């Protein structure tokens, strides 16, 4: 299986603070890969590096065989930012149609994306009048409208009710079956089990890059929340003993 | 650069405006009310209204478009839509030209209504042709738009953006020759006014007021305005960074 994303020794700093330390990982094509970690762990920074809008210090990010953010990728990668980035003074339909037009697509594709995220009823409403969850879905519609080869979704299920969250995850897997690769971030561990692969991040360090089953096995628990805690503790004790060795 | 993407963006911006009825009303009504005020301010001196009213036909659209676009572009930057656009096939120049075309349409409607009112109802009288006055007025509002797009890069909030109006536009209004002929200012001040684009906009309108035929100076001034628009748009494009910290 080829990799949709290859990241080697990625280092990112924001101001003087290192946000990502020597990140190396890959995301297999056709997978739904979860990027999990607490708030502030560097998930958004990593995703921005993948779509090529993040200034990096060193390392390489290769997406679908091209350098991240390079021109051939612009119609192959869809990006959902964490805060809904849609125009509040346009209707849901108008937003989707504008983003569709950027890929040379028409009204039919735009309207299909709106119904895919369950917003058909609200399609003529101004985005500014929608609830937070609906607004996030309007933004999602604009990301999936071009059916990109790689979809980078930053916390797409935040604020959605459980039924909708379930539907969205089913849709993500349907997109993967149709050939897309999805990188989905979340800070809720119960969503980790829905992914084919997991990248667990804490304080800018990658502490796991494997399948949920492998994470469970390594940590010796079925509960992914618990597993994450144990991996963090294991890593901290490694760091402690490293420090002692240096001392 | 892509004409299709530029026009798609211009259409999107006009649709955003269309949903904002109050802004449309303000764009169209404010200059006409202010011109009417001027007309009756100089009730006993129609010659002065011919001079000041004519200049204001150029100044009002510039100020209004400057404010509108600086805030509109700031919103694009702060709500994340710009970052998102830069991951799609659209180019930076397409985005800025889209803004340029959309607001030029709004400016043309505004300038046409304001000019029609000034000539037909308020009795504005110029030696030069009214249609050229309209052209310069539209050119001025496009200039205001281009400057607004550029300064939005230096603002982090709407509070900061609106304050660029007194910082960037007001000095030009003071130095453009409206309050005092430019050749009667202190030399160093005149030198500053020589590099401010609004000085040329006002000079072009004054030329039209005083001559029956468009003069060489007027065409040169119009050229300066167009040049400033292009420079401001290019500088604006340079401030749109795909990769940010």
TrEMBL record, chain A:
InterPro entries assigned: AAA+_ATPase, ABC_transporter-like_ATP-bd, ABC_transporter-like_CS, P-loop_NTPase
Gene3D superfamilies associated with the record: P-loop containing nucleotide triphosphate hydrolases
Taxonomy, superkingdom: Bacteria
Keyword field contains Phosphoprotein: no
GO MF annotation: an example: ATP binding
Residues covered by the ABC transporter domain: 5-228
Keywords attached to this entry: ATP-binding, Nucleotide-binding
Pfam families: ABC_tran
Entry protein name: Multidrug ABC transporter ATP-binding protein
From TrEMBL, chain B:
One term of GO molecular function: ABC-type transporter activity
Pfam families documented for this protein: ABC2_membrane
Family: Belongs to the ABC-2 integral membrane protein family.
Major location category of this protein: membrane
UniProt keyword list: Antibiotic resistance, Cell membrane, Membrane, Transmembrane, Transmembrane helix, Transport
Transmembrane helix recorded as keyword: yes
Annotated transmembrane regions: 23-42, 54-74, 95-122, 128-154, 161-180, 222-240
PROSITE patterns registered for this protein in UniProt: ABC_TM2 (PS51012)
Protein name per its UniProtKB record: Transport permease protein
Topology in the lipid bilayer: Multi-pass membrane protein
Domain ABC transmembrane type-2: from-to ranges: 14-243
Coiled coil region boundaries: none
InterPro entries: ABC-2_transporter_component, ABC2_TM, ABC2_TM_bact-type, ABC_2_transport
GO BP: any one term: response to antibiotic
One term under GO cellular component: ATP-binding cassette (ABC) transporter complex
Localization, UniProt: Cell membrane
